[in-house]
Specification:
The structure holds three protein chains of three kinds. By secondary structure, chain A is mainly α. Chain A is 74% helix and 3% strand. A two-stranded antiparallel sheet of chain A has the order 1-2. Chain A is globular. The mean pLDDT of chain A is 88. Chain B has one domain: MetI-like (MetI-like fold). By secondary structure, chain C is α/β, with parallel strands linked by helices. Chain C has two domains: 132 residues, Periplasmic binding protein-like II (D-Maltodextrin-Binding Protein, domain 2), CATH 3.40.190; 209 residues, D-Maltodextrin-Binding Protein, domain 2 (3-Layer(aba) Sandwich). In chain C, helix 10 packs across helix 18 and helix 17 runs antiparallel to helix 18. Classes of the chains: A mainly alpha, B mainly alpha, C alpha/beta. Chains B and C meet through helix 7, helix 8, helix 13 and helix 14 of B and helix 1, helix 3 and helix 12 of C. Chain B: One of its GO terms (cellular component) is plasma membrane. Chain B: Keywords: Cell membrane, Membrane, Transmembrane, Transmembrane helix, Transport.
Chain lengths: 299, 305, 433
């Protein structure tokens, strides 16, 4: 294709994306370099908004904690979601009759807005009325009838597990599709050679799934770093209880619009910029690792 | 889907060998069906998990058919004497009819625009050889990582400057633009997998670039288009941040905004809230049920490299 | 993405960034004083608010205004409360914002004032004779000017279920601390949750702190001392006021940090709990949830050891209305806001919106509302962390909310919580001796 023709195909998307996404986003980044009085912009501030993120309360204490929660959210989601996704996809692989039906059912929670999901699960897990704890008590597991969302030790994990529950349909679909691409001749030959199911999975199937797992991982990373709706629905903008479900986006939200600080736009834009750099850097590093793996596989 | 975020350089190499993925898996299915992994125990597990996945939806639907008093005394009971009063209230008092039409217009419009421009762009990126295409591709892909909801203030000023505040078209354009990176990300991979011989043949028949694209290429990626459209449809349909900030008149509100106002007015009328939620969610469920076949086909084609 | 493409992406971002700076920024011109109003022309004033639930009441109130002001139409537009700050910030900065926005009070309105979005009202609106604590909500601490007209006084107190009290042998609302704890013990013995607290929602905890322990740290007297720098939040009396939570924790629901405020309200309206510490704004919700409850309110007696053995009703002002500096109909808007400071408007707020009006001398038909207003009249104390410690980040209320959660979870002592509050607010708060 000629370059000029190709560019003509690209032009509409480029204009739309440039005007409505790139331009406002870059403007938002530029806000981080100015002093602010409410919504009116003052003089150039250099990097002082960025140093406020490191030196000033509440950022000094809240930002590292929020970031840690983002990372835990990513790692927890990766671990649980991939395990469930792979297991379910493997189990579904040979069930031709029920496969699509079940895949559809597993994807259903994705359709419900996160606000509603948060509301429903808060109701289900409530220590006063919640049926989950009532059920646990009834079947003699009273020691597990915990205040799930009221204890900093469990609250973050509830958010992670509910998030997995909402999104697990994706890895099930993706890994299911990837399993369909594993050449059956290979696995059958290994079985004939006396390899167990587990060995076949570890030695043959799994390595071939790595690219799919990589894609899921990078998307999960971006998603986990931007996490907002679900934590907000569970713990409000302050990450209740005691900041245990706080995330960077929540910190942005409350410092941009809910604080009494008049320079809020400057510091919160600096926070948005830092968040983007973290996501960008992380995704880049992950992609590099994956590329190396692929090259090793190919050779 | 694609192997990594930018399989830009790697993909063309194995594209030819891919062929049409869906057919390959379908052929294999019959043979393995007698031998499901895990047996009956796994079946119970799989269906058990399906129940867990559906439970909140079921709770939502069941409670929307109960009276509010009934719900408060026993939040998880069954509708012993079902009533549709909550729906009548939501539809008339909450003017959900208007919101519904607005949501449908804005969401469908946004998805249509976004998918159209992204399909063209993805084709251009997949077939462009010059260096600028790789460069533009990374630009679009970096859009996947932009936390655009953190830029609400500049977005507002931009819309204010264009006179697009309180405009459904403006809202649709915003959503369309926000969906471009993801759509391009998925579609580019699909175009790369299509053998170039197809286009060469078309050119020999005298077709120009646009005709080739529209008549030959677009029909080939239809499953991918369905996938992209559905995955963009859901978050737009559920979003309430942009309409809250960018719309002013109640007659233009979308469902989630109407729903939040309805929440405010009926904070304790839970059954009416559930009815509102059901009205909001049903179109997505219908869409998803119809589209799953296409989505599975689309993903299978994308993954089976 | 390869390193090569990464580099080109970054170059492009840097390049477009240069273009973006300087363009697409909010304008800060403010002086567009308009005419209009009172000269027979048709004027439409837009009022923004976060009170979606009060739309009908406000429409009725503004109908009364329209009847007296020919040619003026007032359009009331409520938005979702949790997103209102965002909507207001953008709306006031843009070109088609409201003429009369409802704005936040005390420290939370400072960013709006600093944006030069509001018209100063000194000399235009007369608030003499109003409660000082209420007027402060409408003033900027930065320049001392008046920027809004307060709508309502919110008071916090203990709601209680009268019949449930009687059933467990408590005939009167307690008047001493010993009576109060004895009542708690009786209810506990009767298998009723004495005090329904929703500690999962941190924002409720500074309110609960005021309800249970305002006299313990000394209310208004402490306010003067802490603002002038004579004392700080590490004061033993303030520490002891936080420790009241430890003493009373046994009366709260089990696993209280997992209980949401809506759960606490439901416990109360389902008559499974006998008391609910809350604001005057909670009354409507509690009544609606169970109209059959015999609802009463009382001031919690001063805890043992309080500097002064006198119960108080803490309160603050909110719901203030202001004039948008960009309104093309400034005169008409000023006229409306001036009307909002009259007794006529105040009375309608009391009757229709069912809140305690900020205007002095308003009468209340609702006996509970009257009792709350009277109590505040007789023994007021400021909701200190809100009225004076929300002028920066982290705010006093946020610190208290998080701190009390930690206290209830057992991870911090009252002294540590007090020290955290002190250190937190000192990052932006400077005492004025």
């Amino acid at each position: 294709m000629k370059t000029r023709t190709g560019l003509a195909f690209l032009a509409p998307a480029l204009i739309l994306f440039g005007v409505f996404v790139l331009y406002p986003m870059l403007t938002a980044f530029s806000y981080a370099f100015y002093e602010w009085q409410g919504t009116s912009r003052q003089g150039f501030a250099g990097l002082s908004n960025f140093s406020a993120l490191v030196n000033r309360a509440p950022f000094k204490t809240d930002l590292p904690r929020a970031l840690l929660h983002n990372v835990l959210f990513f790692l927890g989601t990766m671990l649980v979601q991939n395990t469930i996704g792979l297991t379910v996809a493997t189990l579904l692989h040979r069930r031709a009759r029920t496969r699509r039906m079940l895949q559809t059912l597993y994807a259903m929670p994705y359709l419900v807005s996160p606000i509603v999901i948060g509301y429903l699960w808060t109701l289900l897990l409530s220590p006063t009325f919640g049926p989950v704890n009532q059920l646990l008590t009834k079947i003699g597991l009273e020691q597990f009838a915990l205040p799930w969302l009221g204890d900093p030790k469990t609250a973050l994990w509830v958010v992670i597990l509910v998030s997995v529950w909402q999104w697990v349909g994706f890895p099930v679909l993706l890994y299911g599709a990837a399993l369909g691409g594993v050449p059956e001749e290979l696995t059958e030959a290994a079985r004939v050679d006396g390899a167990s199911h587990g060995q076949v999975f570890r030695r043959i199937t799994f390595p071939l799934l790595v690219p799919a797992i990589g894609t899921v991982s990078v998307l999960t990373f971006i998603f986990a770093m931007e996490a907002f709706a679900l934590p907000f629905a569970f713990g409000g903008s302050t990450g209740n209880p005691a900041g245990s479900t706080d995330f960077v986006s929540l910190l942005f939200y409350r410092s941009a619009f809910d604080s009494g600080a008049v320079d809020a736009i400057g510091t919160s834009s600096a926070l948005a910029t830092v968040l983007f750099l973290i996501i960008f850097g992380g995704a880049m590093a992950a992609t590099k690792v994956l590329r190396r793996h692929e090259r090793r596989m190919a050779s | 889907m694609t192997t990594t975020l930018t399989s830009a350089d790697a993909a063309p190499a194995d594209a030819a060998s891919t062929g049409t993925g869906p057919r390959r898996t379908r052929r294999r299915r019959g043979r393995g069906a007698n031998d499901p992994v895990g047996g009956a125990g796994a079946s119970i597990l799989l269906w058990g998990y399906a129940v867990l996945a559906l439970a909140p939806l079921v709770i939502m639907v069941l409670n929307s058919f109960r009276t509010n008093a009934d719900f408060i005394t026993n939040p998880l009971g069954l509708p012993t004497s079902p009533t549709v009063a909550a729906y009548e209230e939501a539809w008339t008092v909450g003017s959900f009819g208007t919101y519904f039409a607005n949501s449908l217009t804005v969401t469908a419009g946004a998805v249509a625009i976004s998918t159209a421009v992204s399909t063209m762009a993805a084709y251009g990126l997949a077939r462009g050889r010059a260096r600028i295409f790789r460069w533009l591709e990374s630009l679009f892909l970096s859009g996947l990582m932009l936390p655009i909801h953190l830029a609400i203030l500049p977005v507002f000023f931009l819309f204010d400057g264009f006179g697009l505040i309180d405009s459904r078209l403006g809202l649709a354009l915003m959503y369309a633009a926000a969906g471009v990176p993801f759509s391009i990300f998925v579609l580019t991979t699909f175009f790369r997998q299509l053998p170039e011989e197809l286009e060469e043949a078309a050119v020999l028949d005298g077709a120009n670039a646009w005709q080739t694209f529209w008549r030959i290429m677009v029909p080939m990626v239809r499953p991918a288009l369905a996938t992209v459209a559905v995955f963009r449809f859901v978050p737009i349909w559920n979003d309430f941040l942009y309409p809250l900030v960018l719309l002013r008149s109640e007659s233009k509100y979308t469902l989630p905004v109407g729903l939040t106002n309805f929440f405010g007015e009926n904070a304790t009328n839970y059954s009416a809230l559930f009815a509102g939620l059901v009205i909001t969610t049903i179109p997505l469920i219908v869409l998803f049920l119809f589209a799953t076949k296409q989505i599975v086909a689309g993903l299978t084609a994308g993954m089976s490299k | 993405m390869t390193p090569r493409t990464l580099r080109s992406t970054l170059t492009l971002i840097a390049f477009t960034g240069v273009l973006a700076v300087g363009a697409c920024a909010p304008s800060s011109d403010t002086d567009t004083s308009g005419s209009g109003g009172g000269d027979g022309k048709e004027t439409t004033l837009t009022v923004w608010s976060w009170r979606v639930e009060d739309e009908a009441a406000y429409n009725k109130i503004f109908d009364a205004y329209e009847a007296k002001h020919e040619g003026v139409t007032v359009e009331f537009k409520p938005f979702k409360a949790t997103e209102y700050n965002k909507i207001l910030a953008t709306g006031l900065a843009g070109s088609d914002g409201p003429d009369v926005p409802q704005v936040r009070s005390y420290g939370q309105v400072e960013p709006t004032i600093a944006s030069k979005s509001l018209v100063p009202l000194d000399g235009k609106v007369d608030l003499s004779g109003w409660d000082e604590n209420v007027v402060n909500s409408a003033k900027s601490k930065a320049d001392g000017k008046l920027y809004s007209v307060p709508l309502a006084r919110q008071t916090v107190q203990m709601f209680y279920n009268k019949s449930l009290f009687k059933k467990h042998g408590i005939d009167e609302a307690p008047t001493t601390w010993a009576d109060f704890t004895a009542a708690g013990d009786k209810l506990l013995a009767g298998d009723v949750t004495p005090i329904a607290v929703g500690a999962k929602d941190d924002w409720t905890l500074p309110i609960v702190h005021e309800v249970l322990a305002a006299p313990r740290f000394g209310g208004a007297a402490f306010q003067k001392e802490v603002l002038s720098g004579q004392t700080s939040f590490t004061d033993p009396d303030f520490v002891a006021s936080i420790d009241v939570f430890t003493q009373l924790a046994k009366y709260f629901p089990k696993n209280v940090t997992g209980v949401a405020v809506t759960d606490a309200q439901t416990l109360f309206s389902a008559e499974k709990a006998a008391m609910f510490p809350g604001g005057s704004f909670d009354m409507a919700v509690l009544k609606k949830a169970n109209p059959g409850i015999d609802l009463g309110v009382f001031e919690v007696p001063a805890p043992t050891g309080s500097p002064e053995d006198k119960a108080t009703t803490p309160g603050w002002a909110d719901g203030n209305f202001a004039v948008n500096a960009k309104s093309p109909q400034r005169e008409a808007a000023l006229e409306l806001v001036k009307w909002m400071s009259t007794k006529e408007f105040g009375q309608m707020v009391a009757d229709e919106v069912k809140q305690i009006s900020a205007v002095p001398g308003v009468t209340y038909n609702d006996p509970l509302l009257r009792q709350m207003a009277d109590s505040y009249e007789k023994s007021p104390s400021p909701y200190l962390l809100l009225t004076d410690f929300r002028y920066g980040s982290p705010s006093g209320t946020d610190l208290m909310g998080k701190g009390v959660q930690q206290l209830l979870l057992g991870s911090k002592t009252a002294a540590q919580v007090a020290a955290d509050i002190d250190a937190g607010v000192k990052t932006w708060f400077k005492p004025t001796p």
